[in-house]
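Retro notes - structure team

What went well: the batch runner handled both jobs without manual restarts.
What didn't: labels got mixed up in the shared folder, which is why I'm recording both outputs here explicitly, each with its sequence directly above its tokens.

Job 1
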Amino acid sequence: MDSEAQNSDRAREHIPKAIELHAKYPLFDGHNDLPWAIRNGFDMRLSNIDLSVDQTDLVVPGIPWRILHTDIPRLRKGGVGAQFWSVYAPTTITGAECVQVTLEQIDLVHQLCDKYPGHFEMAYTAEDVRRIFAEGRIPSVCGVEGGHQIGGSLRALRMFHKLGVRYMTLTHNGGPGWADPAVNQDGSFAHEAPLGGLAPFGVEVVKEMNRLGMIVDISHVHEETMNAALDATRAPVMFSHSSTRALCAHPRDVPDSVLLRLKENGGIVMVVFLSKFVAGEFWVSGGKVGATVIECADHIDHAVKIAGIDHVGIGGDYDGGSLFARGMEDVSTYTKLTAELIYRGYSDEDIGKVLGLNAIRVMEECENVAKKMKEEGVLANEAHYGDELYETNIMKEKKMGVN
């Protein structure tokens, strides 16, 4: 028997129990890039793809890996109970154009809920997540995947929040200019952090996110940025799709020193399934990736060991890459990981925390910080990064040095 068969067989008897747990506790996945896949593969038109049908065998030329990882039948099979949908735009798009693309991606999530109301509903609060899950549908929440997407404008950030964005990743590859990324725009590792993590405007972004009740996401950021964000925030933070650096030496993963701080902060690390973040980029016989569901569970074990059971979740990153850990190839596979956790002796209650209760708690605690800041009279931040899109006569005179 090969290792892949052994890996799947050892926890197979626990699949029925895993399915029961997913019905009881919402699996709140931290990151899914289906909106960007629809933009690239289907001209951003939901009319071009029927997500109510299993599309496992569909070839999609517009997507680099040429397949979809997500559709409604597979979400249901995998027991997905709530979803943070990434409303991503790459760092190659900047300024007002990037803001527009982000708005279009947010609109696509709203369209998804409108087209399939029996399966999805927009969720704006933690209580919404609980209610929609109890009604048998998938609560849908937007997450902006890069600080560059606000175009240097906290006004844009505030409007994104009104439209249903509940987290923002401070950087994507290359960064926004006010926060140091883990990876450069060309994909190379960013060894230096010239800003020391966050520029002054980056600190203001974190504070404004706290005021709004928007979760500060520090996946994709440099280690210096992780620590700077933890220094600046009043609310719990999240890693929406990252694993642990002790088990996989990738700068996108979280070092133990930060996991310890995450415990103090009350935040969450949501373990990702892309092989390069789980076990590195190596392959075994037949050209298969080296990582398996077992290594994914190992990252959960390690995060629990360092940060504690209350600070671990799941963020698959489906439709955002290729070469997922074996056994975790698409959204239908989550119960395999849950079965592996049962095999390892996790209690029902602890599995419930990892599946989604921890993520809901973080969302709710950020809402509570926003309420407290409102009671304190904290008003909207008027800081801006880079050139304003408009200038008054007074602004022009200041630039020219006119008194």
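Job 2
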Amino acid sequence: MQARVPTRASSVGSCSGAFFPGREILEDFSLIFTLRTWWTPEALCVSNMEADLSGFNIDAPRWDQCTFLGRVKHFFNITDPRTVLVPERELDWAKVMVEKSRMGVVPPGTQVEQLLYAKKLYDSAFHPDTGEKMNVIGRMSFQVPGGMIITGFMLQFYRTMPAVIFWQWVNQSFNALVNYTNRNAASPTSGRQMAISYITATTTAVATAVGMNMLTKRAPPLVGRWVPFAAVAAANCVNIPMMRQQELIQGICVKDRNNNEIGHSRRAAAIGITQVVISRITMAAPGMILLPVIMERLEKLHFMKKVKVLHAPLQVLLSGCFLIFMVPVACGLFPQKCELSVSYLEPELQDTIKAKYGELMPYIYFNKGL
């Protein structure tokens, strides 16, 4: 079997073909099944046909990150919810393999498929800035299992005030952990800032949900079902900027094309945080807008009236169906490594760049977070 080796050159233009997410997922299932049947961390099996790893760049994207479809394929790969179940020992192996590949000292007999699988696990579980292992609940790969449960119950239990307050609190607790886990780690956040962000976002979500519930009591039932989405959208507009306020105050770390730090920019931080807010709202929108319409019609059916106990599990399941596609789609709306024109930066930072690089650097780069 000849494996595809992703290099910087080969990754560009790889999105020219049609994109079928189902095909990507099936290929991934096949790859993981194959790896798990003949790989163990203790001993790497040596194939009769060793792959040529000369020129292999493990950090080169498998898909063109300059295109939307390329980014969606990338995030389908690293937000795969199955990676949440991968044991710690295997994640540690993946980190070792990625680090060895970067140094060019992979064990003899290592196959390209092994390295691609290791990079998949590494990207799903380790922070791109620090290389530290992220907590399981805060990983983007946990968005489907965690988000589907919370979203399903928010949409089901929206009628009573205690249920609204409880599920909005649960959702904002989950979001706060996700926002902190996927922040730009180059800008540290204090415990006080996290507490203020958490309290503010939770208060905003609960106030929005409670206020809109009161305003929509006489409105059609479907309008009331959309209240949770309004609360989630409002809270995202508060939670993410508050959690990452240090970046807005001191600036986000910006780098050159070779990953060398140049300085910090508040303008770049504002752009990155705005993109994250848009992505998070987009992630929730289809499920929280369309699912109420679906359930409104299903609940009128005779057999659904007899099985009301199954309404909540059904909403959880349908929420998962939306999220399994919307998580990678929303994450792929904008490049994670943002490119920004130097002319848009603060004047003092522009002067620093021109003094060091002259006119040779038209763009800077930064990790916007997820």
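One thing worth noting from job 2: The longest strand covers residues 261-265.
We'll revisit the folder naming next retro.
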